[in-house]
Amino acid sequence: MEWQRDAVSSCSSEEFVKEASEVTNFLEEVEKCRRTCSAEERELSVPGDKYPEVVFLGTGSALPMKIRNVSGTLVNISPSQSLLLDCGEGTFGQLCRHYGDDVDDALSKISTVFISHLHADHHTGLIKLLYQRQRALASLGRPFSPIYLVAPAQIMAWLGQYHDYCEEILSHFNHIPNRFLCDDAEVSKPKTHSFIQAMLKKNNLEEFRTCGVRHCKNAFACSFVHQSGWKLAFSGDTMPCDAFVNIGKNATLLIHEATLEDELEEEAVEKRHSTTSQAIGIGMKMNADFIMLNHFSQRYAKIPLFSEDFSDKVGISFDHMKICFRDFKILPKLIPALKTLFAEELEEMEERREKRELRNPRGSSNEVISEQKMFRRSEVERGAKRDQEEEEETVMHSIDTKRLKTS
Ligand SMILES: [Zn+2]
Ligand SMILES: [Zn+2]
């Protein structure tokens, strides 16, 4: 398909709803879900707290796509305080789409941004966000104050170069290098120490911890505990990682990447990501109350493949989904309706998986695996869509690395 640069995208929610309601059995499933949820609500009759509220702004990996943008998760800690977890390209656009006319108010509340690592799908929306936040504060007549940027130290090469050759940016943030929030880290600089204390105070947090994870160099996960007792853990990108289990112990909510389906474990190792069941397994080890999966490969843009490990503690995220802790009971109940809505896509993915299984039975020899890799290569040559995305991811990551290296 040819790239139409001048094409104007339009989105009509009525059309989406109409299309969905025409899917066989979908409305029945929604009705069933509604009935069980409202019966349970009556039974519990606990309204629950509205905060923290988690808004998924980008739940896809590698490249921004129509259905899932790249990484960005807003945590509204209180009505006046927000923290952003990763800021991929297009995060500001997603905020505009989510908050509409109230976007300036939403921007003005962001006091802290955590960047897990320097792959482009996790940080290239930051500069735009910083400028837009400054504009929003001015237009609301609120005083400007820099954000707390909790990010790998290497981000300064990029921001410093941008500051020197493009526009002033350094006054927009106070940088806290991720490694200074690792357990046993010694914070020798008084300035960093005071930024950490001020960041905790601003967000009413008791602690904010990071740990190195198994992804690329200088990749981190984080966890933080609010004064009221809740704890949130965020994986960034990683293979299953014990250090993360440790800092996320007993989290109220774990947000974990689940880039690939279970049958692609080998590919997950190659790309240093997690599969769906690995992500759920980490949540279980962590003893998390609830696990939200995100960062899906764009090959699962509409819906990821479900695994047998799904339980009443697991939910899947979509862009613009907004949840608070009282929703944990409802989220798993949405799954039958989602399976009905995306039945066609799921069937296609299952077929693809079966074909792959036939080509590469489990426990096959290295010879067969390398033969399969050759087969995959020829698929790429034919422009097979699913592998193309991963190729693009690799290219993008290497461009990103080059840029950072030269800066
Ligand atoms: Zn990523
Ligand atoms: Zn990454």
Shape: globular
Distance between the termini: 36 Å
Protein structure class: alpha/beta
Uncertain ranges: 365-407
Instruction: Tell me the strand percentage band.
Output: 15-25%
The percentage helix is 40-55%
Q: Which hetero ligands occur in this complex?
A: zinc ion
**How do the strands line up in the largest sheet?**
6-5-4-3-2-1-13
N-to-C SSE string, H for helix and E for strand: HHEEEHHEHHEHEHEEEHEHHEEEHHHH
Rg, nearest Å: 22 Å
What kind of sheet is the major sheet? Answer: 7 strands, mixed
DSSP summary, beta strand count = 13
Give the helix tally.
15
**Residue-averaged pLDDT:** 87
Please describe the structure with a list of short key phrases separated by commas or semicolons.
about 400 residues; binds zinc ion; alpha/beta; disordered C terminus; six-stranded mixed β-sheet; seven-stranded mixed β-sheet
